[in-house]
Design a protein that fits this description.
It is a single chain. The protein is α/β, with parallel strands linked by helices. It is 42% helix and 19% strand.
């Protein structure tokens, strides 16, 4: 599993340019006018992980298969989207299907690129989008909570718990706070996700800056970083223009280009890492002569569920997992060396998979 991240923002902030760069395609039309993206464009990208290449080198794997993540380029929201302004309702529905929101915020000045609000102010832009998501949630919950409370009064225990959860979210939304700030117990997580609230999605702010600020950011992106820290979100700085130029270069030339503009790596890498941290995701590996492959799971997942990501039969018939930590696999030059050194462990159903584990699952068919 990877994750599905919806790229949102006001028109003309660089969303489609960033999407094109991230997916290395020209699938999304980037143009200097609102609503140039009419349908959500979906692109899958490989997650860069140098560990996978090292494992493949040691094992002599014929094929390297990275884990992948999905980006959805969602057309620009405008003030009033929650009431159907622009193409509001359609876009809000697209956001609902995503695991997280990558909110692209314009942090650069450019007289040739118009701003739908008349001037550059990233915090105002953040609040505009957030307000539209919260208003849509408020409308949705107020319509549903009455029926749920009625069922609860009839003695329906599940309805009572759901109505309580809805009302907790409503209190926040009426105070102008996103639903993701609601205190939700581990037992309530599934029900909370089932509410389908837009403002409950984890948020990654992507600060789109001018080329000269791509490395350190600027005063505008610093404001967004403060805002993100205050609300427990994440923020990364990228220059969509630079990323779009890197994307069309041959791999051999990308390193030189990055060095020339003062960057160590593409912005994609930073976006992925921030997204993984935001969603509490980790990677484990399966390695052999045929292929070296990366798999993404949530932090805290036990071995049988991790095996189920490969195939449901692996989880159903799980017996044990032969496990080697990444550093042990590398330092002992592979599985045989790790086994001889006593670094291969047999883990059972209660084992919580760690980031970087190299695993081989034993199961009953």
């Amino acid at each position: 599993m990877g994750f599905k991240c919806g790229i949102v923002g006001l028109p003309n902030v660089g969303k489609s340019t960033l999407f094109n760069a991230l997916t290395q395609t020209a699938a999304a039309q980037a143009a200097n006018y609102p609503f140039c993206t009419i349908e959500p464009n979906v692109g899958e990208v490989a997650v860069p992980d140098p560990r996978l290449e090292e494992l493949a080198r040691i094992a002599g794997s014929k094929e390297i298969i990275p884990t992948r993540l999905t980006f959805v380029d969602i057309a620009g929201l405008v003030r009033g989207a929650s009431k159907g302004e622009g193409l509001g309702n359609q876009f809000l529905a697209n956001i609902r299907e995503c695991d997280a929101i990558a909110h692209v915020v314009r942090c650069f000045e450019d007289g040739d690129v118009t701003h739908v609000e008349g001037g550059v102010d990233p915090i105002r832009d953040v609040e505009t989008i957030e307000t539209e998501l919260m208003l849509a949630d408020l409308d949705s919950l107020e319509k549903r909570v009455v029926a749920m409370e009625k069922k609860a009064k009839g003695g329906d225990k599940e309805a009572k718990e759901l109505a309580d959860l809805m009302n907790r979210c409503l209190v926040l939304l009426r105070e102008g706070k996103p639903a993701r700030l609601a205190k939700v117990s581990a037992e309530e997580r599934v029900a909370f996700a089932g509410l389908g609230l837009l403002s409950s999605k984890p948020v990654l702010y992507v600060c789109n800056v001018e080329e000269a600020s791509a490395s350190e950011g600027n005063a505008q992106s610093a404001k967004v970083a403060v805002r993100a820290a205050e609300e427990g979100a994440a923020a990364v700085v990228v220059s969509a223009k630079i990323e779009s130029e890197i994307a069309v270069l041959p791999a051999a030339e990308q390193k030189d280009y990055l060095e020339a503009v003062g960057l160590v790596e593409p912005g994609l890498n930073r976006v992925i890492r921030a997204g993984y941290d935001l969603l509490h995701l980790i990677t484990y590996f399966t390695v052999g002569p045929k292929e070296a492959r990366a798999w993404t799971i949530e932090k805290g997942v036990r071995a049988p569920a991790a095996a189920g990501v490969i195939h449901t039969d692996f989880e159903k018939g799980f017996i044990r997992a032969e496990t080697i930590a990444y550093c042990d696999y590398v330092s002992n030059k592979g599985e045989a060396g790790a086994r001889d050194a006593g670094r291969l462990r047999l883990e059972g159903k209660e084992y919580v998979v760690a980031d970087g584990d190299v695993m081989h699952f034993r199961f009953n068919t």
